[in-house]
Amino acid sequence: MMSLYDGARKSGGDSVSPINRRSDRPVYKQVADDLRRRINEGEFAAGAALPSEPTLSEQYDGVSRTIVRQGLGILKNEGLIHSHHGKGWFVRAQRPVRRMASSRYQAELDQVGRAESERDATPFYYDHKGFEQFELQRTLTEVPADDELAEVFRVPVGTMLLCREFTFVFDGTPHRRSYSYLLLDMVQGTPITDPANEPWPGGTMAQLDSVGVRVTAVDEIVRSRMPNPDEIAALDIDDGVPVVAVRRIMYAGEKPVEACVDIVIPADRVVLYYRTELLDPRRGQR
């Protein structure tokens, strides 16, 4: 008679690698390993339901449902699966991944020299040409600078800022969210404060140019973290998926003139691409 440790066995019509109770690897991790393999090999397609917990318990050598849930929890945290209350576990559909390149800022600055009618509606066009539909959800409010924003702008706490909350929706899916701040006294009384003018042709650099401010440098600070409940709801983020948080500061000379705190993007929807041109120190040329 074949031992459970000698090869695959069948249960409920599925061929499943057995659990090795002699292994140093915890059983729940073995369950996760094998389910991950089955998903990656296409046994369960995106959107498909996984077998029920009792069925998985039977398939995996009669392990307890607690062990099964622990294994499923690993895959949930990896972003491979998600649960629907009362319906079970499902393979998570993969979102389209788009490139977010550092070159978009030079492309945005290039818009400043064009007539408004010839500018692109948004600088994100360069990284999202494959999308058919674009929608910008926006809310503009006036807010006092807290400690963090006062430090960013190098102004006293309480200095009034224009806060622009943007949610970028591509082909019906919310893709990213940003909180962009401008010094209110720099834009007050101008078309920049009217949300009906968004998206502004040419983007933020063209907006600032319209009030006599030329952007000369951009800082980006990138980190990853887990989303908060508000971000999960606004961006339709699946269980276990972290976000990329990009903090951006635009400068005119040494003066900070715009700050995104932060641009938040689900990590399964973006690839960050950065290119740095280097000077040859021996020749002083690129």
Automatic annotation (TrEMBL):
Record domain HTH gntR-type: where: 25-94
SMART domains: HTH_GNTR, UTRA
Residues forming coiled coils: none
Keyword field: DNA-binding, Transcription, Transcription regulation
SUPFAM superfamilies associated with the record: Chorismate lyase-like, Winged helix' DNA-binding domain
Transmembrane portions of the chain: none
GO molecular function: DNA binding; DNA-binding transcription factor activity
Signal peptide positions on this chain: none
Pfam family, one: GntR
GO biological process: negative regulation of DNA-templated transcription
Stretches the record annotates as Disordered: 1-26
PANTHER family to which the protein is assigned, alphabetical: GNTR-FAMILY TRANSCRIPTIONAL REGULATOR, MANNOSYL-D-GLYCERATE TRANSPORT/METABOLISM SYSTEM REPRESSOR MNGR-RELATED
Protein name in the entry: Transcriptional regulator
